[in-house]
Hints:
This protein is an alpha/beta fold. It has helices at about 20-30, 65-75, 100-120, 145-165, 185-190, 190-200, 210-220, 245-250, and strands spanning about 10-15, 35-40, 55-60, 80-85, 125-135, 175-180, 230-235. The protein has eight helices and seven strands, in the order E-H-E-E-H-E-H-E-H-E-H-H-H-E-H.
Amino acid sequence: xxxxxxxxxxxxxGAGQGQGSAEARLLVEHGCRVFAVDLCAQxxxxxxxxxxxxxxxxxxxxxxxxxxxxxxxxQLSGREVHGLVNNAGITQRDxxxxxxxxxxxxxxxxxxxxxxxGIQALTPLFAPGSSIVNIGSVAGLSSHYPVAYxxxxxxxxxxxxxxxxxxGPAGIRVNSVHPGFIETPMTSAANPSFREATxxxxxxxxxxxxQEVANVVLFLLSDLSSFVNGAEIPVDGGQxxxxxxxxxxxxxx
Length: 253
């Protein structure tokens, strides 16, 4: 199946590990020229030795720094950019009564301001038919308990919808993907009871993989999704489908 991605240039943030590296690898396999960016000064181990018809170019970049985005845009000047995956994100697990404004601001800097700065910097380079994919979370579809992380992902939904409306006339699509519990370095740091409770609330009864998220991102970047714009796609095994009813149903069995 021809996805129409061969030879296209795509920027992936947070590409050093987990979902970001899986997305970068898959795009290279499908012939993309991938600018993979992350905080690491050296090429992360997960991005070394890639094989495929595409090409991977690694750059160190802090998504919260406008100057870093401007530098990347200058490096890309003269070539069309066809995709941006705003994957970089951080979590903060304090609850409502404990979270500080400093913690809230830091999460927003990375999870909301980072995607905004990327969109602002790269939009002048986007070709008609380009695609932006913002990586949200089931936290942005629910009342998840880590308040800074949850509110940042709700804000990212708002940014996605505004960008969809503003950039659509230029032929640029903007969608969001909302992973559930995915086996990544970020989730591995969570309390084991959090993992167990989340899987109990997931109808498929298991955690997801970074590859399963990357597959959906690939679709949204490809020509197969050419009329998909402003969509919010959960990749969560059904976790958000039941609105909390699963634990009630399970208790009555």
